[in-house]
Design brief:
By secondary structure, the chain is an all-alpha fold. Helices cover 75% and strands 0% of the residues. The chain contains two helices and no strands. Helix 1 packs antiparallel against helix 2. The radius of gyration is 21 Å and the shape is rod-shaped. The two termini are 42 Å apart.
């Protein structure tokens, strides 16, 4: 009687861990996409400002830079971000 219960607990525990890992992987992918989007927005702004002859940090540049840094802080270093485990 205890053996089938032990097997059921093992199966449920394994499924719980696998589901958690899948959700974590999805979150990391979403964080990477957000980081890339923020970096692209910052780069596009830099190009626009450079083309306009702006040589100082504008409020828009600072806002986009802050957003890019915050997005990178959610992504592990091995994935291109700045988050240390």
């Amino acid at each position: 009687m205890l053996l089938p219960l032990s097997i059921a607990i093992l199966i449920v525990g394994t499924l719980f861990v696998l589901t958690g890992n899948a959700l974590k992987a999805q979150q990391v992918k979403a964080d990477i996409a957000a980081m890339k989007e923020a970096e692209a927005a910052l780069a596009a702004n830099v190009e626009r400002e450079r083309a306009a002859g702006i040589t100082y940090e504008t409020t828009e540049y600072r806002r986009l830079s802050r957003a890019a840094n915050e997005a990178a802080a959610k992504v592990p270093v091995r994935q291109g971000g700045t988050k240390h485990s």
